[in-house]
Write a structure and sequence with these properties.
The chain is mainly α. Helices cover about 75% and strands about 0% of the residues. The protein has 2 domains: about 170 residues, no CATH class; about 80 residues, no CATH class.
Amino acid sequence: MSPNPDHLAEGTLLSHLLELRDRLMRALIAVCVIFAPCAYYANNIFEFAARPLLKQLPKGGSLIATSVMSPFTTPFKLSFMVAVFIAMPYVLSQIWGFVAPGLYKNEKRFALPLLLSSIILFYGGVAFAYFLVFPVMFQFFAATTPAGVQMMTDINNYLDFAMTMFFAFGVAFEVPVAVVLLVITGLVPIEKLAAARGYVVIGIFVIAAILTPPDALSQTMMALPMWLLYEAGLIFARIMLRMRAGQPRDGEETRSG
């Protein structure tokens, strides 16, 4: 008697759901384990995150807390975000471990480098914002403060602003990965992406204007790296197309378990 296909499908789906649950639990445990020391040093972490602004405040200036709970909740919230940030490679490795068995060999060959590149580029975008953009931006804001106005920023507002900027620059630095994916998946020919360079540059400046504060300096500091990364994505896409040209077609590949 042959097995019932419905039972097989149900069993396969259940096993996949159980595996997904286990991997999500491992990712959550990793975040919690990293969160514990981050929470202990929450104030130190917040001081480090606020350093670019504190350095640009006038003499005697400081951040303020306008809510009774803010001195506790703001560093605590930042600690959790830092824990997620640090654990992200492990979290993505769990996602990769769940998805990878269903990919073709040639898909794995390109997917894993793209995954690693996306992680590195995101971290690079955050570091670029913290070490290069923030000092210049806050110096500009401090220098343009009107006379008679004391620059005093609420710690919760600063955290929200910093996290938004970190995320914006992290995503902006994913441009090469997006370009490579568009090309190797065949959604957009590389010739069209190269020919549309002028429109892309305009779009990049529009995106930078939306994601950054309303000053030309911040917008340029986001748009210029995005444009350079777009050009880098075109170069890497050409290289990967040449590499794939020497590989067997998808139909000649078999799915690996």
